[in-house]
Amino acid sequence: MKTIMKTLFVAVAMLAMTALAQAQLTEKKVLTLDGARKIIDAVKMEAKRLNAPGAAIAVVDDGGNLLALERLDDTFAAGSQISIGKARTAALFKRETKAFEEIIKNGRTAMVTLPDSLFTPLQGGVPILVDGQIVGAVGVSGAASAQQDTELAMSGANALSAKAAVSFFDKEKVASAFEKGAVLFDASNKYMVHASHRDKAGLVEVHEQDADIIYVLDGSAVLVTGGEIVGGKTIAPGEIRGTDVKGGETRTISKGDVIIVPAGTPHWFKEVPGPLNYYVVKAR
Questions:
Q1: Residue 206, helix vs strand vs coil
Q2: For residue 230, how many other CB atoms are within 10 A of its CB?
């Protein structure tokens, strides 16, 4: 009996110690490199939507340590360091940097004596909040205005908690897109839907990052896929155009056909005898 009681006492004591240890610890969420990249992608998408002239984007963890940095084309060189400073300030002080800019503007100039390594009181730094915890911050510098820096940073800060919205395009908008060939939906870091129209042959195309999923809606064409591009020239990052294909597979496509062209594969609408409408889903 004494042995049983002693065993129970030890068990209860161990449970009590475990409960006490758990009470002294909290579960902490940590921002990963993949999460930081998702935040930067969200800022880039918003910059594209707003036609922002350029931006440097920095993401730090909750200790202000740099996780990821990207400077878009046409952004001034100092933007990188400024964006890091904004992100670090937002993370360490757990507030938007816009608040500090306003505090100093209202007369509390003593704050500017804080070391630059800790404090960049300029708009464009926003904490990243996940389930009530600040896991880091994002800083943006180099957009058209200080307000736009903040708007872009906000789009990044919300990226981890935002849910994708359902997109709907009525038949009039779809018909209008096919008339000229236009993008219906663009989530460039994942996929894009294009309503494509052709009346004649085009150039040979190679998309180094995107696979093309093609669904023919109306019309027909002679499509060449594979082989080796001739006269290829880079017209944009990851986009090559040429005048001919050496080798490859030739097939006639028509209404109802689906073709999947993997990334990096040359493809060419070599002959288009009449109006051709087709959907292209670009998958990255």
A1: strand
A2: 12
Return the minimum-mean-pLDDT range out of 161-175, 194-208, 240-254: 161-175
How many other CB atoms are found less than 10 A from the CB of residue 132?
A: 6
Helix (H, G, I), strand (E, B) or coil at 71: strand
Please name the fold of domain 171-283.
Jelly Rolls (2.60.120)
Residue ranges, CATH 3.30.450.150, the chain? 33-157
Distance from C-alpha of 85 to C-alpha of 60, rounded to nearest angstrom: 10
What is 33-157's CATH number, 3.60.10.10, 3.30.450.150, 3.40.470.10, 1.20.1080.10?
3.30.450.150
Residue 215 above 90 pLDDT?
yes
In the prediction, which pLDDT does 12 show? 46
Q: How confident is the prediction for the chain on average, in pLDDT?
A: 86
248-252-253 Cα angle (round to 5): 110
pTM of structure: 0.54
pLDDT band at 164 (very low <50, low <70, confident <90, very high): low
**Contact by Cβ (8 Å): 261, 212:** yes
